[in-house]
TrEMBL record:
SUPFAM superfamilies, A to Z: alpha/beta-Hydrolases (SSF53474)
Signal sequence annotation: none
Keyword Lipid biosynthesis annotated: no
Organism: Streptomyces parvulus
Keyword S-adenosyl-L-methionine included in the entry's annotation: no
Taxonomic lineage: Bacteria, Bacillati, Actinomycetota, Actinomycetes, Kitasatosporales
Protein name: Alpha/beta hydrolase
One Pfam family of this chain: Abhydrolase_1
Gene Ontology MF annotations: hydrolase activity
Recorded superkingdom: Bacteria
Record domain AB hydrolase-1: where: 29-262
């Protein structure tokens, strides 16, 4: 059994969210957001390191990881932005430090720019933020999700494993790959995998893209230089749109910087968070 546990639960508008809190009760709060098709598991090393000094909140988005999955579930970026807003209220956090990866970046940006959620600072790691996004494979599955959902379980498992392992960088340890693929298998996991892709709509970033110059909180943008899913050029473009954003490319890392270069990423985050806090 994985040592990464989410013992707490919260009933959100999009289903039950599993979450956990690490670190000192009086520490400055840091909220970590994962992306797709991942879960909070990808933050485990960074979260435990940050928890030496900060009160760290981790959670699996509805439809992901250990959180609830069900037919008809709204797992869109719009829904996840609302869930984050609910969660921060549930946790009693008024101006947390927020660190977000991939789709989690879009979720954090929507909550801040559309729902008025205040942050003390925002760190974005290879976020989904600028159009166009989505690999050719991602777009193919999105446009034919109902067909892919009918794959035999063994073929589905092989597809997900290959997809998760294609993010660039030095490659994932087989045990890590097992942990990331596991939630997408079985009776509830297989349809959930295609559900979240089917609901991935670029309009949810189009709605906020012209607002990035209005971001007024300290912002760090980290990017794996070998990201095979979102080119590093997108990171430089985003850094140029956010006033005063700090740009931190990370060599030798792919899209999953947390797995490929956890020490380098943690060091960048710690330096930024210390200044922002």
């Amino acid at each position: 059994m994985s040592s990464w546990q989410l013992p707490e639960s919260f009933r959100s508008a999009s289903g039950t969210v599993r979450w956990n809190r690490l670190g000192p009760a009086d520490g400055r709060p840091v909220v970590l957001l994962h992306g797709t098709p991942f879960s909070s598991y990808v933050w485990r090393a960074v979260a435990r390191s940050l928890a030496r000094a900060y009160r760290v909140f981790v959670w699996d988005m509805p439809g992901y990881g250990r959180s609830e999955k069900f037919a008809g579930q709204d797992v869109s970026l719009a829904a996840q932005g609302r869930v984050l807003t609910e969660l921060l209220d549930h946790w009693g956090l008024t101006d947390p430090l927020v660190v977000a990866h991939d789709f989690g970046g879009a979720v954090a940006l929507r909550a801040h720019l559309l729902h008025g959620v205040p942050y003390r600072a925002l760190a974005l790691v290879d976020p989904v933020a600028l159009a166009p996004w989505g690999s050719p494979f991602f777009r193919l599955v999105r446009d034919h999700a109902e067909v892919f959902e009918q794959l035999p379980p063994a073929l589905h498992g092989a597809l997900v494993r290959e997809y998760v392992g294609s993010s660039g960088g030095p490659g994932l340890h087989p045990a890590v790959l097992d942990e990331l693929v596991g939630p997408w298998l079985g009776e509830s996991g297989q349809p959930a995998f295609y559900r979240q892709i089917a609901q991935a709509d670029q309009r949810h970033t189009d709605e906020i893209q012209d607002r990035y110059p209005r971001i007024g909180v300290p912002t760090l943008i980290c990017w794996g230089e070998d990201d095979a899913w979102i080119p590093v050029a997108k990171g430089r473009e985003l850094a140029g749109l956010v006033p005063g954003a700090r740009w931190e490319p990370i060599g030798g890392a792919g899209h999953l910087v947390q797995e490929d270069a956890p020490a380098e990423l943690t060091a960048a985050l710690l330096g930024f968070l210390r200044e922002a806090a």
